[in-house]
Amino acid sequence: MILIDGKKAAAELREELKHEVEGLKAKYNKVPGLTVILIGDLTPSQIYVRNKEKSANEVGLKSEVLKYPDSVEEKTILEKIEELNKDETVSGILVQLPLPKHIDKQKVIETILPSKDVDGFHPMNVGNLSSGYESSVPCTPLGCYLLIKKVEPNLSGKKAVIIGRSNLNGKPMTQLLLKENCTVTITHSKTKDLKAECLEADIIVAAVGIPELVKGDWVKKDTIVIDVGINKIENGIVGDVDFDEVSKNAKALTPVPGGVGPMTIACLLKNTIECFKRSQI
Ligand code: NAD
């Protein structure tokens, strides 16, 4: 079985991006800039943002984190986004989710200029992705896609089963694999026989949030399995795939941690650079 090393793949991607940023700096005499807005003091969000800032600095991006208390008014955030939209030194804007209840997530997402939407959540980017046009692609599915392509460069005609239909993961993942000419089945909480669907799959992407849902006997011998899940259990963190069982069966599998997670951040940097490049045309 191939253990898909997300840490290594992310380090390689960051190295590529670092060279790209050097080239852009030489060409334009400026570097792409990423601004992250962090509201409140949720520990996981703080850790994510710290990691994003560290990785952005590592590849040579200009990065800043704007921190606000939980009590900040929605209007303040929307006005700041408008200001960042106009700032030419800012290539990408990310508002770390989740947001406090009194702030309308969709309003925040739609205020970010689509051309600076490094998360790929703006309806314009969602539409462009599903129409097959150029767009920012949500970072986690983009990371999954790059990991799958490392194992199998030609995906044409493969049968992919996506577990979970969230806007963050399942739906954009579906679009990326459709674009590669996969036959994609998107499954969810109301799917009648998930095991039977998985047994048909050459590729499984599990983005559910249920610890070790996908079992060894759900997977064919030649299946590539990507585990997006991050689930806290008593003794640590596990994915949506039963690693011990599935690793005996699958062709390739991502571990949790050390699989999809590191690629998510590297793809955020990639998206920031893409936004910068498009803004220079
Ligand atoms: P979500 O809660 O928005 O969506 C979960 C999806 O799973 C839903 O579409 C639901 O229909 C489906 N589902 C629920 N129960 C099911 C079942 N029994 N069978 C089949 N489908 C079922 O979750 P999300 O935001 O997409 O996140 C999914 C998981 O991925 C979580 O564990 C989250 O922590 C993790 N995650 C990881 C990363 C990363 O960087 N690795 C990024 C984002 C999310």
Account of the 3D structure:
The protein is of the alpha/beta class. It has two domains: 29-113, Leucine Dehydrogenase, chain A, domain 1 (Rossmann fold); 139-261, 3-Layer(aba) Sandwich (Rossmann fold), CATH 3.40.50.720. The protein is built from ten helices and eleven strands. The strands form three sheets. Strands 1-11-8-7-5-6 form a six-stranded parallel sheet. α1 packs parallel to α10 (260-279), α2 (43-58) crosses α10 and α6 crosses α7. The radius of gyration is 19 Å and the shape is globular. It starts with a strand and ends with a helix. The mean pLDDT is 97.
The span between the termini is 44 Å
Q: What is the chain-wise order of helices and strands? A: EHEHEHEHHHEHEHEEEEHEH
Q: In CATH, what is the class of the largest domain? A: Alpha Beta
Shape: globular
Please count the beta strands (DSSP E, at least 2 residues each): 11
Number of domains: 2
Indicate the percent of residues in helices: 40-55%
Which band does the percent of strand residues land in? 15-25%
Ligands in the model, by name, code or SMILES, are: nicotinamide-adenine-dinucleotide
What is the CATH architecture assignment of the largest domain?
3-Layer(aba) Sandwich
**Biggest β-sheet: strands ordered side by side in the sheet:** 1-11-8-7-5-6
- Summarize the main sheet: 6 strands, parallel
CATH superfamily of the largest domain: NAD(P)-binding Rossmann-like Domain
What gyration radius follows from the Cα positions, in whole Å?
A: 19 Å
